[in-house]
Structure formats: structure tokens, C-alpha cells
């Protein structure tokens, strides 16, 4: 029996695709991170960043926390911060979905909206300025090693266990890159032949949760040597696969998960045999106010 909501973070289901893959020698599995209590994969790093910072005495209930987010990390931080009696301000672009903004506020966080034109980069600039000028402290998911270590300690071991050590390819969208960095590090330690595939948008494509960062904003936790291959997807492809996931596999997810699944399916079509795992990073219900499912 779980004692608190925090005990429900991790150990998410791994389910096999039933209809998408036509080659019986290739197995495609989806890691359903929307089953975390905050509804996304970001519960893992949010909990680890907060817990480790408190253990080190870096933050207390008196600390003024601020963090830039495109959505899922903010929801996770809002949920977990309040459980530790921490106050946090979350900064995000004003075109973020209404569900995300309202969920963060429901958990008790203060939400600051920055210009849609400046994107998440503008939100990051705003938060960093508050750290420099107004006495705030930032967990900094883009440069915090406790981000990727959460996946090294949990996501990677779960996938290794639940595929009976048979995984051959791991596919993940790249945003902060924490998921792919931590999972890659663990899986490569178990079997150096496991191929790590990162997914990013094609130039000009806007896919929430996946980024091709300008050099000056590239997350400092990212290590290109831990990614064997980068596959690009366009917005239309990501949208179409998101719909297919729901209609053909019963998996209701956001567009970044559709982008990862599109890349994973392309990969499956190349392989003669293999065991492929793709991250489904959140649930589709936080995108219902967008045009994703119109």
C-alpha cells in the first residue's frame, strides 16, 4: 500500500503496440509516463531535484523558487513543492494550454506568462533575471544533474527490467534532455549495444515538448555522445501519429509523444528484428483546449 502520492511516482506501465508494427520480429513498447500522479514523465526529475536540494540544505520553505517551463515540469514542480511546503513561481509562454496553467495554479503555484513570440527561451530569460536581481533561486532543470539522475535511477532500470534485458533501441523526444541522458547512461552500462535515438523537430516545426535548441540555450546536461542517432519529425507527422496512438493503440497522449512514436515506428520499419521502447511522456487530456484533437 502506498503511503503518500509521492510513492506513486515511477514504475509506470510498459505496453506492447498491438497494431502499428507489421513485422512480427520487431516489438515496439510504449512507456506510459502519463500514469505518474502529476500526469507526466516530469514527476521523476521534479521530485529528485527538490528532494536532493532539500537534503543538501540548498532550499527551505523560506526560499523563493522560480522555474521556467513549457508545462509538464511546471505541473510536477507545483505538485511536489507544495507537499514540501515550498512556494514556487512558474514562468511559461502565454500560448501554453489552459489546462496546464490552471493545473499549476490548482496546486498552489504562482504562474507568470511571458510573450508567446519569445517562446520558452523568453521564459528562461525572465526566470534567470529574477535569480540575478530579486533573490530567487532556480532549480534549473536544463542544467541540474538531479534531472537526468532521476532517470538513471528509475526510468532506465524499469525499462531494463520490464523488457527482460532484451531492449535493443530506446527512443525519446528531446526537450530538457534529462530523460534521454539518464536512461541512456543506465542502459549503456547494462549493454553497450543498446541504441539510443533522440527525436527533435524539423526546422520550423512547432511540437510542444520537443526542441531543437539554439546553441546558446542548449541544456548543459546534454551530452551528444550518449545519443547514437537523432531523428527529426515534422508537426504534421507528430500530429497524425498522436491521433493514431489514440485510435489504434488506445494511448491518449500529447504531441511530443506522437513525435517520438512516429520516429519509433520509422525505426521499426528499418529493422529486421528488435525490441524498441518509446517514451509516452504525458496524457492527451492536457491538450484538449488546443486544436490537436480537432
TrEMBL record:
Its annotated pathway reads:
Amino-acid biosynthesis; L-cysteine biosynthesis; L-cysteine from L-serine: step 2/2
EC number per UniProt: 2.5.1.47
- Whether rRNA-binding counts among this entry's keywords is no
What keywords does the record list, in alphabetical order? Amino-acid biosynthesis, Cysteine biosynthesis, Pyridoxal phosphate, Transferase
Q: Which SUPFAM superfamilies match?
A: Tryptophan synthase beta subunit-like PLP-dependent enzymes (SSF53686)
The record's InterPro entries line, in alphabetical order, gives: Cys_synth, Cys_Synth/Cystath_Beta-Synth, CysM, P-phosphate_BS, TrpB-like_PALP, TrpB-like_PALP_sf
User: Could you tell me which residue ranges the Tryptophan synthase beta chain-like PALP domain spans?
Assistant: 6-282
GO MF annotation: an example: cysteine synthase activity
Q: Which domain of life is it from?
A: Bacteria
Per its record, the protein catalyses: O-acetyl-L-serine + hydrogen sulfide = L-cysteine + acetate
What PANTHER family does this protein map onto? CYSTATHIONINE BETA-SYNTHASE (PTHR10314)
Q: What does the sequence similarity comment in the record state about its family?
A: Belongs to the cysteine synthase/cystathionine beta-synthase family.
Q: What is this protein called?
A: Cysteine synthase
